[in-house]
Amino acid sequence: MRILEGEGVTKYFGGLAAVSNVDFHIDQGEIVGLIGPNGAGKTTLFNLISAALVPKPGAIRFKGEKITGLKPYQICRLGVARTFQEVKVFGNMPVLENVLLGSLFGTSTGMSSADAAREATGLLEFVGLSAVRATPAKDLTLANQKRLEVARALATKPELLLLDELMAGLNPTETAEAMELVTRIRDKGITIVMIEHVMKAIMSVCDRIIVLHHGEKIAEGTPQEIATSRTVIEVYLGE
Amino acid sequence: MNTIRDIFKRPLVPGLISLILLILLSTLPVYGSDYNVILLTAILMYVIITVSWAIFSGPTGYISLAPAAFFGVGIYTMAILGEPLPLLVVVVIGGLVSFILALIVGALTLRLRGVYFAIFTFGLVVLIKELLLFWEISITGTRGRFVVLESNTTIYYVMLGIFVALMLTAYFIRRSKFGLALQSIGESEEAAAHTGINVTLVKVITFAISAFFMGAAGAIIATRWTYVDPYVAFNPLFSFLPVLMAIFGGVGQLYGPVIGAVIFAYLEEILLTTFPYYYMLIFGIILVVVILYLPTGLVGLVQKLWKRSSGEQHANT
Lengths: 239, 317
Prior knowledge:
The structure holds two protein chains of two kinds. Chain A is α/β, with parallel strands linked by helices. Helices cover 38% and strands 25% of the residues of chain A. Chain A has nine helices and ten strands. In chain A, the strands form two sheets. Chain A has a six-stranded mixed sheet, with helices on both faces. In chain A, helix 6 links the parallel strand 7 and strand 8. Chain A is globular, with a radius of gyration of 18 Å. The relative contact order of chain A is 0.18. Chain B is mostly helical. Chain B has a domain of 206 residues. The interface between A and B is medium-sized, with 30 and 18 residues.
């Protein structure tokens, strides 16, 4: 089943097409990698899906329903959560409260404070941050702040999770841990789209890869197909 | 175990102190002189404007310079409706008119960030003042208006009532999940929106709640001033003072703005009576020193000293 579909999704910044007429689809339960050189429009596409920006023209459908024109908080409550390329944790708030906000406000049905607290505590355990639950989020290491963003996003009970460069700036051990975290999230039944520059991670974790270049989709396929695609190699390495 | 004990322990001492203070304040007209009642009314007025400013601007970081607008709307509500309607009704109407004005202004301008928002809100003060001036001169043909008289004790009790309602509101906002959402907006508005928080709604409602109390305070203080015109009612000082008082006290805690406003208002009174010519100058110097050396305000300073001394105790044992 297609959980997310984009049709002719386009976004101009002034005269520059950041994302240009991109058609894409995401199937339920898969991990899709979104790659491309810097400035290819990957984060812009995430912003369009999560309603930080509105596509013009183009339409995005989530579980068959058109979601273009909704506000970010509505998209979140429908079941699409995201993390940010530049981490955006609530720095002066304790780690637990960061996650609590997701459970309190991000779910479609809402939940009682007691349930939200239980949920948040459980998620901190899931991402491995139980020990620092009372620490202000700004005092965490980058790797842990990224984990916290994932926990906050998961607290909104998403069906689709958008991860924007989860592994950028992490050391090899942390990257391996992040990869393991991604597969554990998928095992929970959550569909994942991830922007990533760490090729090893993308190739081993993803079921399918979409390649963007200058705002256009230039290739799509299994990691094997992408790794051997002439167009992709040309874009990344030059001719 | 620990958490249950903490819940019982936490509100007890501040709650007890608040109760004693409240009893002292509500019996003041019995044992205090008339001067004390008037002074306390003025101090409470500053506290109300400052705390209501801090309800919104404290957690969100949006610096509003609109207090004078909401305060002035309350003043003019009393000047216009004070004669035909009962006092308390007019006070509530004054609050509601400010509330509605804030809803409209908030919905229009809370997309603006940082200095743009500050300038717009200040523009609102000037705009309303000029509109009113135009209206009064060319339509009603008046420059100023006389306001109904009330006894000093009545004014004091109404002001105290508004203060108590405000403190309870501020406390519950802080303790609620609504307050948590408000704080997250100040930390990162974008992340808050993508975490399922309707940021526009939360901001606009809080902005309007803070305006309600400013309007109510303006309505009641108008009866003490007896004569108002647009220049008096929309004095820009009432936009800047709450910001200064809140920063002076420290916005991190609920009692920060209260302490800031009390000390500030009392200081103003003393300086004004003892150094009538230099009071603004001394005032200015104190402000500069506070902003330079106490970025977290008086409360922040006390907390730092407290931590240091308790830290030493731990080191000694």
